[in-house]
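cron nightly-structures :: item 1 of 1
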Amino acid sequence: MNVIELFISSILNNNIALVFILGMCPLIAISTSVKNAKGMGIAVVFVVTITAAINYPIYKLLLATNTEFISLIVFIITIAAVVQLLEIFLERFIPKMYNAFGIFLPLITVNCVVLAVSLFFVNRDYTFVETMSFSFGSGVGWMLAIVLVAGLREKMAKISNPPKGLRGKAIVFIVLGILALAFMGFTGLV
């Protein structure tokens, strides 16, 4: 599979949120507005891409030789450091976005999407270029999912009146299920 196919595949038919069902906690919590969803999506794209770029050479040069068992620990430390730097940057230069994220910004550290991308490149034996394509595409795919859900939630809040049992996060799960089924239509695309 070439790099462009890998990128498109990681956005559509291998969408990390809607196919692999990863990163649901922040996706559901932050998708209350498109503005917040875009900000969180950009932050996740940044963190996923940067941590994969850092973790790849660390793994290939240091961990791939009989020390693979500590790769999880090293990956998590790298993720935590990148998220901490992002948090400092947002707090200093974009305080509105920093405040909008609240507790969910530091939770990117434990977002399974970020760790999954690093584990996927190890398990699939990607090259560095494939890793970068896959990680950026996975981040964009997750951002696409959160923005779609946020847009649908905003639209539903204006025009629909769901039954009492389906209000709030319950309807989000239904929307996510329908989106996941829709994204299954991309299977075989790449």
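cron nightly-structures :: done
The chain is about 70% helix and 0% strand.
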